[in-house]
Amino acid sequence: MRLETSNSSVELSLPANFANDIRVSTSNGGITLHMPYQVNAHVMARTTNSSISSDFEITMRGEFSKNHMEGVIGTGGPLIDLTTSNGSIRLLKNVGAGHARPARSGHARSYCPAPPESAPSAGPQTARARSRSCG
């Protein structure tokens, strides 16, 4: 599936059994992707003037920063490719079936890597987003 738009945000919910690649591109808007709690996917996310946040634990691959992330959720699976120029990217867990969304106040999980000099230079890395400011 491919979604492209300009001057608008995109909000998309994926079903539990999605198996096809997802590509979303927008300018001047954010991307919010709701996914099942137990999801397997390969994720690539890029934003120019904002940040990336995730409710999921992601095993990072290659270089990553506040504005760029590539990695695997679960055991990997279909590609989820998200790109925006002037908006944030949010990967959220679906609410339902006995699962409650974590409180956002004081517990928001923003993707914000450690400064480059303290980040390991090789091999996969697991990042669990934490609430802190990226500057």
List the keywords.
single chain; 135 residues; mainly beta; seven-stranded mixed sheet; five-stranded mixed sheet; 12 strands; 41% strand; globular; disordered C terminus
SSE inventory with pairings:
Blueprint: E1 2-6, E2 10-13, E3 22-27, E4 31-35, E5 41-47, E6 52-54, E7 58-60, E8 68-73, E9 79-84, E10 89-93, E11 110-111, E12 125-127
Parallel strand pairs: 1-3, 2-4, 3-9, 4-10, 5-9, 6-10
Antiparallel strand pairs: 5-8, 6-11, 7-8, 7-12
Describe the structure.
The protein is mainly β and 135 residues long. It has a domain at 2-94. Helices cover 0% and strands 41% of the residues. It is built from no helices and twelve strands. It has strands at residues 2-6, 10-13, 22-27, 31-35, 41-47, 52-54, 58-60, 68-73, 79-84, 89-93, 110-111, 125-127. Strands 1-3-9-5-8-7-12 form a seven-stranded mixed beta sheet, with no helix packed on it. It has a five-stranded mixed beta sheet with strand order 2-4-10-6-11, with no helix packed on it. Strand 7 and strand 8 form a beta hairpin. The protein is globular. 19% of the residues are buried.
